[in-house]
UniProtKB/TrEMBL annotation:
Known catalytic reactions: GDP-alpha-D-mannose = GDP-4-dehydro-alpha-D-rhamnose + H2O
Lineage, opening ranks: Bacteria, Pseudomonadati, Pseudomonadota, Alphaproteobacteria, Hyphomicrobiales
Protein name: GDP-mannose 4,6-dehydratase
Cofactors that this protein relies on: NADP(+)
Encoding gene per record: gmd
Family the entry assigns: Belongs to the NAD(P)-dependent epimerase/dehydratase family. GDP-mannose 4,6-dehydratase subfamily.
């Protein structure tokens, strides 16, 4: 039986990855950072019905001693580093925390592995945000990076440190450069979930308006359930490497709204409005991924369409709010 350790197991991707690994027979362990509101921590794992099937360890990415303790205790075959301060807008308010958790945190994990268990395979959650001000219309592993936020700069540091530990110490360390991926478990502050939650509230008569920022921003949106499969595939390869994971289709926030409102028979234009509070100091206007390498080498392709994703998210929010 293989053993996996997931940092960020309580987040969106951590929950779906834990579910996938359990289905493959893994013993699944995760980091749990202590919170005064302990009752809400396992909400996503509970949603998937797997909270009791994973083993949690008290640790924090910013405290390498806690990581050393956990890796010594668990002796994982695979470590997936998904933990991060992952909300781009917050990274301007908390740039140092974001750098510490999302940048240095990855190096803490790499160091703990290098010192204790250098045969452990490592996955780093890199991001399309590293392309920022895009240098090519379709971004692949060869496209130069141009980060546009403290979050993206922190992630780029972690990305290059992963490459560096692979090349310097021979660690089996891979990065997935994942484009935006969503699901009913997406945090409510991210735009897709904010929209599907807003649509459900308006449909149920609980709200009338949905205030958003830049409606013209375009993203390559996929389903988190599909994307965690790509993470696992990367660690099953003999040679570690970096891969773009994306759908190859880009859609504006405005068009995402159209899809979500039309699913419940409403018109987006009647309900959405722009609010400057949701604009960012620097914007990533458009992202579009080229995942040809993942298809050729991992045999991975996105399977959920945007239309299916939107329907699943709106339906889940209607169900949640109707309870
Ligand atoms: P979430 O924000 O849903 O989850 C983040 C996780 O990190 C949570 O489990 C959170 O724990 C944990 N965490 C935060 N700070 C710390 C810390 N100091 N120590 C330990 N754990 C911590 O993110 P997603 O699931 O959406 O994303 C997973 C990863 O992939 C992130 O690294 C993200 O930056 C990256 N990514 C995400 C993409 C996406 O579209 N979703 C695209 C590309 C990359 P807690 O529950 O306690 O808050
Ligand atoms: P992003 O996701 O920044 O791409 O990062 P988010 O959903 O926050 O924003 C996407 C785009 O929508 C625009 N937007 C709004 N965004 C939010 N959150 N709220 C609004 O009201 C709103 N209105 C318009 C944004 O300006 C932006 O252009 C996500 C995170 O999961 C990162 O951790 C991950 O690395 C990247 O995806 C890939």
């Amino acid at each position: 039986m293989k053993t996996a350790l997931i940092t960020g197991i309580t987040g969106q991707d951590g929950a779906y990855l834990a579910q996938l690994l359990l289905s493959k027979g893994y013993a699944v362990h995760g980091l749990l950072r202590r919170s005064a509101s302990a009752d809400v921590i396992g909400a996503r794992l509970s949603f998937l019905g797997i909270l009791q099937d994973v083993q949690m360890h008290d640790a924090n990415l910013t405290d390498i001693t806690s990581l050393i303790r956990v890796i010594e205790a668990v002796r994982p075959d695979e470590v997936y580093n998904l933990g991060a301060q992952s909300f781009v807008k917050t990274s301007w308010q908390q740039p140092i925390l974001t750098g510490t958790v999302s940048g240095l945190g990855a190096v803490n994990v790499l160091e703990a592995i290098r010192i204790i268990a250098p045969k452990t395979r490592f996955y780093q959650a890199s991001t399309s945000e590293m392309y920022g001000l895009i240098q090519e219309p379709r971004q692949s592993e060869k496209t130069p990076f141009y980060p546009r936020s403290p979050y993206a700069a922190a992630k780029l540091y972690a990305h290059w440190m992963t490459v560096n530990y692979r090349e310097s110490f021979g660690l089996h360390a891979s990065s997935g450069i994942l484009f935006n991926h969503e699901s009913p478990l997406r945090g409510i502050e991210f735009v897709t979930r904010k929209i599907t939650d807003g649509v459900a509230r308006i449909k149920l008569g609980l709200a009338d308006k949905l205030l958003l920022g830049n409606l013209d921003a375009k993203r390559d949106w996929g389903h988190a359930r599909d994307y965690v499969e790509a993470m696992w595939l990367m660690l099953q390869q003999e040679t570690p490497d970096d891969y773009v994971v994306a759908t190859g289709r880009t859609t504006s926030v405005r068009d995402f709204c159209e899809l979500a409102f039309s699913h419940v028979g409403l018109k987006a234009a009647d309900h959405i409005a722009m609010d400057e509070r949701y604009l960012r100091p620097a914007e990533v206007e458009v992202l579009l991924g080229n995942a040809d390498k993942a298809k050729a080498k991992l045999g991975w392709e996105a399977t959920t369409t945007l239309e299916q994703l939107v329907v699943e998210m709106v339906e889940a929010d209607l169900k949640r709010l109707s309870r």
